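From the shared-data thread, chain only:
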Amino acid sequence: MKLDLRKENGNNTFEENKHEPWTSGNLTKLNNFIKIKRVSMKAVMIVYNQSISDEIHELIISLNIRGFTRWQDVQGSGSLNGEPHLGTHIWPSLNAVLLTIVEDEKVDGILKKVKEINQEVGQEGIRAFVWKIEQMAG
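Structure, as tokens:
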């Protein structure tokens, strides 16, 4: 199967152009026709003790983060130190998780704020994780 670029025929459709399929003019026309917009996005997941929910709320407001999902009453235990957050009589505290998808340029600001909160609250517990978003739909 051969992939051919098409040349514009004036109706915003493309017809076969067998003589010069890969010229830069055809590539430009095709890119303009498709109008693909690629924005580099990252997922940031913040896991934190519910006792610092106000600080996290201030973080998302101060950085103008509009879209997020939050889970409450999440159980967990940190990998380095600190106490488990299991919602039991022995380990009564619980975590929350906030997930947001943001433009790359917002990530450093989020991580900086998370580090500041961590220094303020110490053993309460907060961690942020970042990964690249490959595709989104909806």
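The mean pLDDT is 81.
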